[in-house]
Design a protein that fits this description.
This protein is mostly helical and 255 residues long. The protein has one domain. It is 72% helix and 0% strand. It is built from nine helices and no strands.
């Protein structure tokens, strides 16, 4: 009887943990999941998944990232509906661009993606800067914003080249998405290897703007959040998500 009771308690505990995990995923401030999506966006762009049908996949992931950023940052009503509409437009545009081809069509898709990426950091920052206590999720949100900024300029720079019909870089050759994501993150981190240089005019303006944006964000926002970071007690996130469900305490496994 004792063995059956322990087995039953174990199953109940596992069921509670699974339910808690689902609630945490649906709750606000799930920036670990957002960061995972952002990394996927980076990888898809860095391996040059921007030609043909892979363009649709990359665009869909950008849309998912924007929707999650707004959902987990608790941005609702009209702004969320606008983003949802923009995601649909982006996916339809990517399908059309893939079917008919052309640099201009692909450039338009990248402009829409850049706008979705631009909206995402705004939503995240509006949430995490209002946190009364800086937690791990707050820091993950800040890291997500930093990477999103790099992706924003990568998509924007590539769109400029496609729509203008002129190379973004001084160096000769054919440059794809992987070159732009490389140049963007080298610029935002101010590494500056010098193997790729923007041409005069708008490309140089974009590069300077990105470098300034990245450094200001690191020095002011990230440094401030890190200095205010306070580790949350074990189980506090589960208790906050499950408040009102099966008590207030940590869900501990049965003996």
């Amino acid at each position: 009887m004792r063995g059956e009771s322990q087995h039953s308690n174990r199953r109940e505990w596992l069921a509670v943990r699974r339910q808690t995990a689902r609630e945490v995923t649906r709750a606000s401030d799930s920036y670990g999941l957002l960061l995972a999506l952002v990394i996927i966006d980076y990888l898809l762009l860095s391996i040059d998944w921007t030609h043909g049908w892979p363009t649709i996949t990359s665009t869909a992931f950008i849309g998912l990232t924007a929707l999650l950023a707004f959902h987990t940052s608790h941005v609702r009503d009209r702004p969320l509906k606008v983003v949802q509409s923009a995601v649909v437009i982006a996916v339809v545009a990517s399908v059309t661009s893939t079917a008919f081809g052309g640099d201009v069509g692909q450039g338009i898709v990248f402009v829409i993606c850049a706008l979705l990426i631009l909206a995402s950091p705004i939503a995240v920052l509006s949430r995490i800067l209002g946190h009364q206590q800086v937690s791990v999720e707050t820091l993950l949100g800040a890291v997500s914003v930093y990477i999103l900024l790099g992706l924003l300029f990568a998509y924007g720079d590539l769109a400029i080249q496609l729509l203008s019909g002129h190379s973004f870089f001084v160096q000769s050759g054919k440059f794809g998405a992987s070159d732009f994501v490389y140049f963007s993150f080298v610029t935002i981190t101010t590494v500056g290897y010098g193997d790729l240089s923007p041409t005069v005019g708008l490309p140089r303006t974009m590069a300077v703007t990105e470098a300034l944006t990245g450094q200001i964000f690191l020095v002011i926002t990230v440094a401030r959040l890190v200095s205010m970071y306070q580790p949350r007690p074990r189980g506090e996130r589960i208790r906050s998500v499950r408040s009102g469900d099966a008590g207030d305490g940590e869900v501990d496994p049965p003996d």
